[in-house]
Amino acid sequence: MIPKICTVLVLFSTLLIINPGFVAAQRRQQIKVYLVAVGDNGQAGKKIGCEDSVVPVTRSIRKTAAPLKAAIEELLSTPVETDGTPKLQNFWKGRNLRVRSVSIRRATATIHISGEVFVAGICDEPRIESQIEETARQFPTVKRVKVFIGKRTLKDAIR
Questions:
Q1: Whole-number Å distance between alpha carbons of 14 and 17
Q2: Buried-exposed string 76-113: b where 16+ CB fall within 10 A, e elsewhere
Q3: Which of 37, 81, 132, 154 is surrounded by the fewest CB atoms within 10 Å?
């Protein structure tokens, strides 16, 4: 038994020496946040209202047992404009936006956010809705999404 343990330790130590990023990679996981390509008309991603596209952007986060919550937190913390082609924008802007809770029951994700979402015009509504819904639906256990800002539904909060 001891020789097997020693062999495993030697192999693992060798792996760390050859590839020191191995341990760091084991503590990370990939998620997607969905951003908007304004006026893209569905070319870079899924077509949404106002001739826009919602486009997945892969992010590396700390490994967590709650990846949906982490993905929503990542979305809320993403800058309004990002570099790249196509130019992508985050319409989740506002005051004191924070994820309060996330749960999944019977394939429905329920997301509670505190703070205030700013809406600049009628086209922001499908952008905001699509971003959070698609970010949540990337997970196979999520088919439907309910979002609340404070005690109001997302639809009521942004209209």
A1: 5
A2: bebeeeeeeebebbbbbbbeebebeebebeeeebebbb
A3: 81
**Domain range for 96:** 2-158
| Tens-level pLDDT at each residue, the chain (159 residues) | 555 554 544 545 554 565 555 555 579 999 999 999 999 999 999 999 999 999 999 999 999 999 999 999 999 999 998 877 779 999 999 999 999 999 999 999 999 999 999 999 999 999 999 999 999 999 999 999 999 999 999 999 999
pTM check: above 0.85: no
* Domains held by the chain: number: 1
Rounded to 5 degrees, φ, ψ at 39 are 70, 15
Q: What are the residues facing 105 on neighbouring strands?
A: 108
CA pair distance 123, 79, nearest whole angstrom: 19
